[in-house]
Amino acid sequence: MKQKILPSTRAFVLARDSYQCQAPRLDPDAGPCRDAFGSVTAGARFWRDPGPMYLQMSHTKPRGELSMGMKTSPTPAHLITLCPGHHTGTEAGSNWEAVHREVIRDHLASLTMLGTSEE
Predict the structure, then answer these.
(1) Structural domain spans, the chain
(2) pLDDT tens, 95-119?
């Protein structure tokens, strides 16, 4: 059964990630952020969470855990904030999140070591 991200978990991850897509922070070549309609939202911060049209939670499994179509547990240690363009948008047949999973895993691991991935 699919586990939903609790509103308190979403709020925690958004605050931890400064209400910003983390792709440009982790990859200077990530390109501009885009909303669900493909419009550029470069430099936008969403202090009042307008919902998943602008910022989404990306589930990232730990290294060695097979994908098999199931998402990992919806805890802050496995979630990162991405705009729709970097989360599910495609450019040249691939999306940023899929290509940069190892970068995301390293980032989440560093947050866990710093104690900033727990509610």
Answers:
(1) 14-114
(2) 898 889 899 999 999 987 765 555 5
